Amino acid sequence: MIRDGNINRQHHYWDNLAREAIFTHPFYLNKIQKFISTDSKILDYGCGYGRICQILWDKGYRNLMGVDISPKMIRRGNSLYPHLMLVQLDPDTLWSESDRFNLVILFSVLTCIPELAALQELLKRIHQVMAPQGYLYISDTLVQTDPRNVKRYEQFFGEYRTYGVFRLPEGGIFRHFLVDDIYRLTAHFEPVFTDLIDVMTLHHHPAKGFQYFCKKVS
User: Fold this and answer.
1) CA 15 to chain CA mean position, Å
2) How far, in Å, CA of 145 to CA of 217, rounded?
3) Could you give the CA distance from residue 144 to residue 89 in angstroms, rounded to a whole number?
4) Which DSSP string corresponds to 27-92?
5) CA–CA separation, 79 vs 180, rounded Å?
6) What's the topology of domain 11-143+175-216?
7) Which of 4, 33, 70, 181 could cross-link to 14 by cystine, CB 3.0-4.6 Å?
């Protein structure tokens, strides 16, 4: 189980994976470049070791900030990409600044937040710190229909009371989504595009995922 008692802040789990984790959700910069200029302020929330920030850096984006709850992920990122601004998440500091970010990236982040109230609070906070007309780019994992996943959704439904939430043997707790779940969470954003994609999980299982790109509205 999560050692700090908060199933929405699983930094111990990610610290344990920091040395070998490889994140693979595809980042389609070509699909969003027309919305995001190279001088845009960009936040990668849940940046891990900085993979996406580095992709953006390679394409000329410099006003980048990556934050993650795992200090070991950040240390790995700082070692790999010392030119990037990757810092351990300090919610009090991050949320105190408003109208900052032209783009916020949430790649495989919502899946790590099992509870609906915590998801709603995160999206509310993100909306607050985005610039007017800012954009949000989400990539995550759908509720699966294969027997392996259905079995664990059913196994943990009695404990977490949400179909799609499950716990791994190593202790990490995850949530898979319906696309409509994401639309509800982002009700204060205007859709730009939704794509259904094939992804690989952290443990190298093929899965169905989605990407959602949307625009802030007042």
Assistant:
1) 16
2) 34
3) 30
4) --HHHHTTTS-TT--EEEET-TTTHHHHHHHHTT---EEEEES-HHHHHHHHHH-TTS-EEE--HH
5) 38
6) Rossmann fold (3.40.50)
7) 70
Report the Cα 68 to chain-centroid distance in Å.
10
Q: Is 117 helix (H, G, I), strand (E, B) or coil?
A: helix
CA distance 31 to 211: 11
Mean pLDDT of the chain: 92
Strands 130-141 and 206-216 come out as antiparallel
For strand 64-68 and strand 86-88, is the pairing parallel, antiparallel, or unpaired?
A: parallel
How many Å apart are CA 5 and CA 23, to the nearest integer?
26
Distance separating alpha carbons of residues 189 and 95, to the nearest angstrom = 18
140's tokens: 């995550």
Render pLDDT for 189-216 as a digit per residue (tens, 0 to 9): 999 999 999 999 988 899 999 999 999 9
- The answer on pLDDT for 1 being more than 80 is no
Give the per-residue SS3 of 155-182: HHHHHHCCCCEEECCCCCEEECECHHHH
Q: In this predicted structure, what is the pLDDT of residue 121?
A: 94
DSSP-derived 3-state class of residue 120: helix
Report d(CA 8, CA 2) in Å as an integer: 9
Average pLDDT for residues 12-21, to the nearest whole number? 82
- The candidate with the shortest Cα–Cα distance to 104, out of 62, 136, 140, is 136
